[in-house]
Amino acid sequence: MAVCNESKIEFNFDTAIRVYTHDLKCSCTGNYRSDGNSLWPGIDFRVLDHVGWIWLEVKNWRVSAHNEYPRKMKSETFAREMREKFLGTDAFLASKRDPDALPRPLMLIFLFQPQHGADPALKGAAQQLIRNQIHNALTPLNIKFAVLDVADWNRKFPDYPARQI
Amino acid sequence: MAEISHHSKVRLENFTAFADATFEFCPGINAIIGENGTGKTHLMKALYAGQRPRSREVPDTESALKQLFQVEDFQSLIRISTERSVALKVDGMFGSVDWGYRIDRRTNGDEHGGVYSSSLGLMTRPVSPSRPVFIPATDMLGHSKGFKEAYNTVFLDFDLTCYDLLGLLSLRGRAEVAGALGEARSSARAAYGAGTGTGRDLQSILQGEVVEDETSGRFYLLTATGRMEMPLVAEGLRKVATLIRLKQNQWLLPGATLFWDEPEVNINPVLMRPIVAELLSLARHGVQVFLTTHSYVILKELDLQAGETDPLRYFSLSHSSKGSLVTASESLSDLEPNSILGHYGNLYDRDLDRTLGGVRTRGSV
What we know:
The structure holds two protein chains of two kinds.
Chain A: E1 2-6, E2 9-12, E3 18-23, E4 27-30, E5 33-37, E6 45-48, E7 53-59, H1 69-73, H2 76-87, H3 89-97, E8 106-112, H4 120-135, E9 143-148, H5 150-156, E10 162-164
Parallel strand pairs in A: 3-5, 7-8, 8-9
Antiparallel strand pairs in A: 1-2, 1-4, 2-10, 3-6, 6-7
Helix pairs in contact in A: 2-3, 2-4
Chain B: E1 7-15, E2 18-24, E3 29-34, H1 40-51, H2 61-69, E4 87-94, E5 97-108, E6 115-120, E7 131-135, H3 147-153, H4 160-169, H5 174-177, H6 181-192, H7 202-206, E8 209-213, E9 218-223, E10 226-229, H8 235-248, E11 256-261, H9 272-284, E12 288-292, H10 296-305, E13 312-318, E14 325-329, H11 339-356
Parallel strand pairs in B: 3-12, 3-13, 7-11, 11-12
Antiparallel strand pairs in B: 1-2, 1-4, 4-5, 5-6, 8-9, 9-10, 13-14
């Protein structure tokens, strides 16, 4: 039973097996665990369910950088930053501490919500950039990566509904 | 300064794909999207038919319609309907001038084998003087030699927009007035150097001047290094050259109307940025622009480049059992339905399905 808020987007993870939050400070309620970090970079949520892991990074560009996100989304710098977040030290080590972590399938989801909706061509370009970075990371894991907005998320993961608050 | 006239609205009744559709245009760029067969090009031709000046070869609206739509009988333009007495009507407003035409359909005989007679109403008031130009999807700069003579003497399966465009491209303009070829070559060399241009405006993309040899009736691209026959120039660049030529001829002056059918044809998307910049510049200088497109790049360039004060309106045409439906918006993100962005979304969804699999629920593995 966990309901988590990040960047004014609320996720209901009630039906997940387990939910981890990265930060010590998080606005979650219910049954969740915190990795307890405040220093290292990491992703917002790691969700375990019967299929495997979903690692979720959330950017709500309705509330911040709403004029800059197209430039950010297509930059290599941002793609590398996302790789570090997903495969960087903290979250990756955290996954290795967890006996359930491997070898289950791993989905990395970058969820972003721009102010006026997400342009599919922009999502596709950003997805390709970050995907290239992740697939260049020489990890033995079978990782799937996608860029979604809230509407995409709700279509793909109806058991974990999200809404903007 | 006199007020510039432009198309402000038109109503099409029983006109090909349209049962009853009303458009309210902006004085700047009017971008029209929609799936094939929704009537985008027909809308522009309906306007052009009303605006085109009469001439010896095309003396009336009836001739203009037949040659614009390449139909033997202009009754073909009446939307197919179960109502036998249906009439095609076009009513528009250009500046303060009401204009329009109608085609009545009447049966004369039995229901199935009846012989149709028709009458084409005269325009209530002509739209003139005005300066319309229609750039069709087909390039014409590379097909100029003998075209006009052939068009006037034998049946050619090209529509009137092709003929008209060649006429405008042949107008003597600044390029010829500037003098002989040698002078133009020096001018080109001075403007563009021996190598590549420094800017990405249209002229620097073309790397030369468009000139017509009146003896041969052919167009050439005159660059710093020589003269190239237009058929050797890439077809996409010929479209760029067409626009430049119309500017050089001083046809695209304030008050002109530019209709451009699918500017993206044969043009690499990287050129869309300067082309859209040019269209916006024309609109800012009083040229009303109509364009149809299937191109995401054009739509996005318009969206990105247009300033808040630029008059720009998007129109979406969609199929329905009652003829094509029209929606309009000043904002691309608010335009619904948007067949182009919709299909990009569909591609994205399919990419997600391939990457993530289908919908993930507790019942799925």
